[in-house]
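Folding Problem: From Residues to Backbone Shape
Fields: amino acid sequence; protein backbone structure tokens
RECORD BEGINS BELOW THIS LINE
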Amino acid sequence: MLEPTNNNELPPIPGKRYFTIGEVSDLCAVKPHVLRYWEQEFPQLKPVKRRGNRRYYQRQDVVMIREIRSLLYEQGYTIGGARLQLSDTQQKETNNCDSNTIQQLRMEMEEVLKILTI
């Protein structure tokens, strides 16, 4: 998933592996309690939890939060609408990936068939 273009006013995401909830809050201009709420509403958003239930977000989580923020705050979607939009986008990406994999497997099988018929 690409970083949404309408989040230009947000700071760039540093090249770190994990981010705390406070860092993500600053990077996405969203309060920490909103991030915790979004975790309940969006099944795609699952930060790693470590000792004491501390949340550690990865880069793809930050990008997902920015996407959710854009859908809700800038494009005017409801929580349910944003959830549907995200699941539709992920479904399309999965289908596209599956068709590419099938096409690649077919080409490889045709090559194997040529080798066997020689």
